[in-house]
């Protein structure tokens, strides 16, 4: 059991509870008698969310998929389990802003995470953010709102958590550069030619991290790093020219900060999402359900750092371009990628078609400087349609 002081009973909502980050978050919470799960939400996994609900006894559960939500509600009714069941986007927003909840873990995948995050901030909840799309597409809306509502925005991503940890006790003025590390994915060292013939199976074999399918593919294209550069820009208020990416194939250095005086701080550790999840839940305290695991430093004769090959991995190059352009461009980048990855996972397009599609969508896009939520949704739909159109898929 987790032993800690000073928090008292905390009430938490976990959005995306059936995914990789969600289940690992619940693993931590399971060991903490001073965290009460008020709300669980997921896309449509009835079986798993039901199991989680029976264990954690939230007062509210939400499934985005309406038919699945109804199925769940019927099962709860039959079995006499008392729990409010919400559904759809409205349900997700309601689930994110329930009275009494202090912290909302946003671990849903994709752009459906944006609206509930905004709802939660508006309701003055602290946010543990694992959803990348929120800041990528709506950073210009989220960050001023975070300031206005004076809530905490805690990163749940190994790189951003690393930077967040390096920045503890430091002033914004003393930061010179953020150095985001990347594993380089399964195709590190490949040429463009070699990438043309890689299979879905190859793309799903990440060398160091065990994650969901979408992010594993994003890691292979390095689109993931493009998204993370944009997130870092918003989270830490640092210009794009001061954010660098270095490939660190062993995934031991999770990211670094260069300070004005030339000092570099890095956060190291075994590649395990448990650490960023726990830091988001307990920062600035360090609390863990595991015995501290020291990386096997002796196994590495050296730790490698190299510049990424942006000509081969255009996913990263396009991401930085989208970030610098700002406005609606990051949404196009992200939505085109989401759609292309979906088609790739369905076996309908090739690996290299993913970044080709993103590139084409970005050049076809008519830029908007500061899109609102409605516009972001429309830009998303258009970008998805554009990508499907490229392959004659409806
Ligand atoms: Mn990451």
How much is the radius of gyration in Å? 21 Å
**What kind of sheet is the major sheet?**
7 strands, parallel
Give the amount of beta strand, in percent.
5-15%
Which strand order spans the largest sheet, edge to edge or round the barrel? 4-3-2-1-5-6-7
**Secondary-structure element order, as H and E?**
EHEHEHEHEHEHEHEHHHHEEEHHHHH
User: Quaternary state, please?
Assistant: single chain
CATH superfamily of the largest domain: RNA polymerase sigma factor, region 2, helix turn helix motif
Structural class: alpha/beta
Q: Can you list the ligands bound to this structure? A: manganese (II) ion
The tally of domains stands at 2
Please summarize what this structure is.
By secondary structure, the protein is an alpha/beta fold. Helices cover 46% and strands 15% of the residues.
Structure commentary:
The protein has about 400 residues and is α/β, with parallel strands linked by helices. The chain has 2 domains: about 10-130, NAD(P)-binding Rossmann-like Domain (Rossmann fold); about 170-270 and about 305-390, RNA polymerase sigma factor, region 2, helix turn helix motif (Rna Polymerase Sigma Factor, Chain: A). Helix content is about 45%, strand content about 15%. The strands form 2 sheets. Strands 4-3-2-1-5-6-7 form a 7-stranded parallel β-sheet, sandwiched between helices. The chain is globular. It starts with 9 loop residues before the first strand and ends with a helix. The model has no long low-confidence stretch (mean pLDDT about 95). The protein binds manganese (II) ion. Manganese (II) ion (MN) binds next to helix 7.
């Amino acid at each position: 059991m987790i032993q800690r002081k000073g928090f008292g009973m905390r009430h938490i909502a976990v959005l995306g509870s059936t995914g990789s980050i969600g289940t690992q978050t619940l693993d931590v919470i399971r060991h903490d008698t001073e965290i009460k799960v008020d709300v669980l939400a997921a896309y449509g996994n009835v079986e798993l969310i039901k199991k989680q609900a029976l264990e954690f006894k939230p007062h509210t559960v939400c499934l985005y998929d309406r038919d699945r939500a109804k199925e769940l509600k019927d099962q709860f009714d039959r079995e006499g389990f008392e729990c409010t069941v919400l559904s759809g986007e409205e349900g997700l927003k309601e689930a994110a802003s329930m009275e009494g909840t202090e912290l909302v873990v946003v671990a849903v995948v994709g752009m459906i995470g944006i609206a509930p995050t905004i709802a939660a901030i508006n309701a003055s909840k602290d946010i543990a953010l694992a959803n990348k799309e929120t800041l990528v597409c709506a950073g210009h809306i989220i960050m001023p709102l975070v300031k206005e509502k004076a809530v905490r925005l805690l990163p749940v991503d190994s790189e951003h958590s690393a930077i967040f940890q390096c920045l503890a006790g430091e002033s914004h003025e003393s930061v010179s550069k953020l150095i985001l590390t990347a594993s380089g994915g399964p195709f590190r060292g490949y040429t463009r030619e070699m990438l043309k013939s890689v299979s879905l199976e190859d793309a799903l074999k990440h060398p160091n991290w065990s994650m969901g399918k979408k992010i594993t593919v994003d890691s292979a294209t390095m689109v993931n790093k493009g998204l993370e550069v944009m997130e870092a820009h918003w989270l830490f208020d640092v210009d794009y020219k001061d954010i660098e990416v270095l490939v660190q194939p062993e995934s031991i250095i999770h990211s670094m900060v260069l300070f004005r005086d030339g000092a570099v701080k890095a956060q190291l550790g075994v590649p395990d999402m448990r650490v960023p999840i726990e830091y988001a839940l307990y920062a600035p305290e360090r609390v863990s359900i595991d015995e501290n695991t020291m990386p096997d430093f002796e196994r590495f004769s050296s730790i490698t750092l190299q510049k990424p090959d942006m000509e081969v991995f255009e996913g990263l190059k396009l991401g930085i371009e989208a970030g610098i352009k700002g406005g609606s461009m990051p949404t196009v980048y992200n939505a085109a990628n989401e759609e292309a990855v979906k088609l790739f996972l369905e076996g309908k397009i090739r690996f290299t078609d993913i970044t080709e599609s993103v590139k084409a969508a970005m050049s076809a896009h008519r830029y908007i400087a500061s899109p609102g939520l409605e516009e972001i949704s429309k830009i998303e739909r258009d970008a998805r349609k554009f990508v499907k159109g490229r392959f004659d898929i409806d």
